[in-house]
């Protein structure tokens, strides 16, 4: 592996293994959960299942992106969204390899990449992303999401924290 790092540092960096491992873990957990919900629990046959006063399990196939934006009902539209996901994951993999600032950034990129790949698999296999978790309170319902979506949100939060956190402010003052 050291030879690859020497010749092509844009393909693999010091924290690429760590970030990629979290990405693979995210992908496997999300796909296993989706398989269980659809094939074993059969949520699509149960309708809305109340878990807590603020959480229900439901089945929603999202043919768009976050919050149902840019709905793509056709196979070509789903392939367009898959292509966008592949390009975004490739860009993040290069970012990860080119030297991220630390483990938080590497973990954040891994969570986003794993979630994006898992949702792209859904688009290819099911024609849309399978979502199950419905949070709600006081009559207000947030969007329905899955483990991959939660990982993507956590990854974005990690990147934001890393970008605006104390370590960045100290580095800016020193530079």
Main sheet specs: 4 strands, antiparallel
Strand order of the largest sheet: 1-2-3-4
Indicate the mean pLDDT: 86
Helix-and-strand structural type: alpha+beta
The count of helical stretches stands at 7
What does this structure look like?
The protein has helices at residues 2-7, 16-40, 43-46, 75-97, 103-126, 147-164, 166-174; strands at 49-52, 55-62, 129-137, 140-145. It is an alpha+beta fold and 175 residues long. It has a domain at 71-133 and 145-175. Strand 1 and strand 2 form a beta hairpin. It starts with a helix and ends with a helix. 31% of the residues are buried.
Give a brief rundown of this model:
With 175 residues, the protein is an alpha+beta fold. 62% of the residues lie in helices and 15% in strands. The chain has helices at residues 2-7, 16-40, 43-46, 75-97, 103-126, 147-164, 166-174, and strands at residues 49-52, 55-62, 129-137, 140-145.
Q: Which properties best describe this structure?
A:
single chain, 175 residues, alpha+beta, 4 strands, disordered N terminus
Which secondary structure elements does this structure contain, and how are they paired or packed?
Elements: H1 2-7, H2 16-40, H3 43-46, E1 49-52, E2 55-62, H4 75-97, H5 103-126, E3 129-137, E4 140-145, H6 147-164, H7 166-174
Antiparallel strand pairs: 1-2, 2-3, 3-4
Helix pairs in contact: 2-5, 4-5, 5-6
